[in-house]
From TrEMBL:
<feature type="compositionally biased region" description="Basic and acidic residues">
    <location>
        <begin position="81"/>
        <end position="93"/>
    </location>
</feature>
<dbReference type="Pfam" id="PF10186">
    <property type="entry name" value="ATG14"/>
</dbReference>
<dbReference type="GO" id="GO:0000323">
    <property type="term" value="C:lytic vacuole"/>
</dbReference>
<feature type="coiled-coil region">
    <location>
        <begin position="270"/>
        <end position="304"/>
    </location>
</feature>
<feature type="region of interest" description="Disordered">
    <location>
        <begin position="38"/>
        <end position="113"/>
    </location>
</feature>
<dbReference type="GO" id="GO:0032991">
    <property type="term" value="C:protein-containing complex"/>
</dbReference>
<keyword id="KW-0175">Coiled coil</keyword>
<dbReference type="GO" id="GO:0000149">
    <property type="term" value="F:SNARE binding"/>
</dbReference>
<comment type="similarity">
    <text>Belongs to the ATG14 family.</text>
</comment>
<dbReference type="InterPro" id="IPR018791">
    <property type="entry name" value="UV_resistance/autophagy_Atg14"/>
</dbReference>
<protein>
    <recommendedName>
        <fullName>Autophagy-related protein 14</fullName>
    </recommendedName>
</protein>
<dbReference type="GO" id="GO:0035493">
    <property type="term" value="P:SNARE complex assembly"/>
</dbReference>
<feature type="compositionally biased region" description="Polar residues">
    <location>
        <begin position="58"/>
        <end position="80"/>
    </location>
</feature>
<dbReference type="GO" id="GO:0005768">
    <property type="term" value="C:endosome"/>
</dbReference>
Amino acid sequence: MDKETEHDTGARRERPWLYAWNRRLRHLQGISIRNLVVTPPPTRARGKTTDDDDIPNTLKTPSKTLSQSNNHTLHPSRSFTDLKSHSSQHDIANKPAMRPSRRKSTLFWNDPNPRTRQVKLEDITNSRMADTFFSLHCDGLDGPVYISETVDRANNPSFQSFDLNLCGPHVSRMDELTLRVWTKIGDVTEFILLVELHLHLRSLQFLGRTLESFHQPLPANSILFHFPDGVYCNLTDLPPVETSLQAAGQKVTADGTVLPSSSYDALMKLANLDECVQDALATREKLEAQIGSILRQNERLLNVASDAAAAQEKLALTKQYVATERKRVRTAVRRKEELIASIKARQEAMEQGRSAQEKTRSHLPEAQERLVSSEQLLGQNEEDTKGQLRRIAEDLLAIYPIEPIPDQPLVFTIAGLALPNSDFEGIDREVVAAALGHTAHLVYLLSFYLSVHLPYSINANGSTSFIQDPISASLPQRTYPLYPVSVQYRFEYAVFLLNKDIEYILIKQGLRVLDIRHTLPNLKYLLYVLTSGDSVIPARKVGGVRALVAGLSTPNLSRRGSVDSGASVMVPAKKWLKMSSK
């Protein structure tokens, strides 16, 4: 047996907890409707039009036109003898194949136009959806005992649960009721009565603990009743089956053993308790009525007391509002005083600022004149500085002349000593050391005259000069010789640092370095740029040691008349006089 069969068998074995004669309205917890149909189906078969109400079905549509155009043409029939001459088997073999049915292409919802088909499908869906609510009525009562909420646009509406115990014992103990279902479709403004059902709770059929366990189809407008033990429905209108009192008073177990039910004494106790409860409820109602009458008699006094309490509460609230407003007024006054003081202080500051501005404005013309003269003086100083730098560069070129070697491109000599460009194989060590000493001294002097701080400091000591590297962090030594030594890489690194200093000076002057390895070419290029210009190079100003100038007029002392003294003192004095005359 498969799982579905076992599930169906288990569902059929379910039995209600309540006996049919024990069902009362107090046990009813909810109502739901399934397969709601508002428009009844047609009473005649669909076919040819019989009256004017079916005229819209005779309209010509594209699908009907296509179907009519494909009909078979009418051929003349054969004679009787011609038909007799052929056997039935031959007729069956030569019978043409029947064309497939065109029912699918002629259905009204299979219109070729998608918009028309969509509108028709929406109309079909809207015709099945309705706004629904129900009302419960009992015999002996004029109005309904319960009116449900309205469920909008639903085909299977499920309503909220309710409790009829609140209606009193007269209603909760009844086992008969009248159910009325009201519906409304589309734009209709009023609800219409769809179903009016008069039933006895004993005639309900048990479907199962839940509706999911019931797998049979339900008829149209099926009304389901929800009780604590399961779901019931009025599938048939058969009268209730009466059970004998003897069978009703007994319980049967699974093994067939009959067990006795509640005794007479227990039932009498329950009846007495019910009477006590009903007496208590009646007493409560009497007390409620008495209290209501007393309140109605003393309504004027109660209203006066209520008005007095309301007035006192209003007075307290008014006092609270007054205190709050007074606090706000004090805060506003204090804020106003602060703003007045602030405005006054600002006005005084503005007056002081105006006076200072007027005083400054009176000195402005004089300051502008001084500014113009200062700008002129600054421009003159800049021109003089450039001229002095040109003169110093000329002097340095005269002291350390850098000249090219014929037939050797980019190879120069400094003070007549050849210095190769970073290639020190097969060289004269003493000549290279002297040339590097002159180069280091020249770079050292240029750093002072151009106010450039060298990243790698130079100690110019002639042919034993050296350079320091304070920047690199992973070097075991900081001092490197600018003369050939036994450790070749230390000498080559020193030349590299010297070239970096020259590159740094060129960058500070706004010049571009093409190759850092060209020591003397780069230095020659720097001096060439420094000495370039159209103006006349200014002369050196007389200054320094005054004794050199004053020595011309001093009397001859110990060695004043000697040849060495004249060579060392008189010759420079003539040069200075010649330069001062220029």
